[in-house]
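Known limitations

Files may contain more than one protein. Parsers should not assume a single record per file. Below, a two-record file is shown to illustrate correct handling: read the sequence, read the token line, then continue until end of file.
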Amino acid sequence: MVVVVDLDGCKGINDTYDHQIGDAFLIHLTRLLEQTVEPLGFAARVGGDEFFLLLQNQTPDHGISLDTLIHHADQAMYHIKYNGKNGYRIHDTLYSVQRPSEGGTR
């Protein structure tokens, strides 16, 4: 399972407190994510305020490649991002559909 975490409002931290504080916040968050998922997989910061969590053995293997999982996770994230933020969306690889999002208000 791949989880994409995209933070909203990180630019505000940099603008208000400076980039050094913003970087320290992202490093702290990275460590928290790593500690949280460590028994099940791993976490990685892949860009500015975006993180991927790879959780192994959480769902049956349907022969889906990691690239495909990341692609579906990105699609789900962008759906939330452009439809109000503050939500989540799940792509079900078994049925190749995206379940409706929860939250996401604009």
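...continuing to the second record:
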Amino acid sequence: MRILPGMTVVVPCDFNQTKVATLAIADYLEPVYLGFGRPKWPNFMEENQHFEIGKAQALAEGNDVGRCRETDSENKMRCHRRRA
């Protein structure tokens, strides 16, 4: 979906964020894909939080950086952590 011109992709992290993301998408005037696919996951975002399409949300402040990427045909993730 990301390769379609003008398409915005939103992938919420839990139920609470899915709820507010859906409301934000309803008011958004451009095409949006709402991605699901996470297994059952506990809620860790607050209910009725502010959600703005195109803006990241910081979950915690710190001085280290993490990144994940797919590494093999089974879509297993490899994560790396680095001090900034």
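Parsers that stop after the first record will miss the second one. For reference, the second record is described as follows. Residues 22 and 34 are 8 Å apart (CA to CA).
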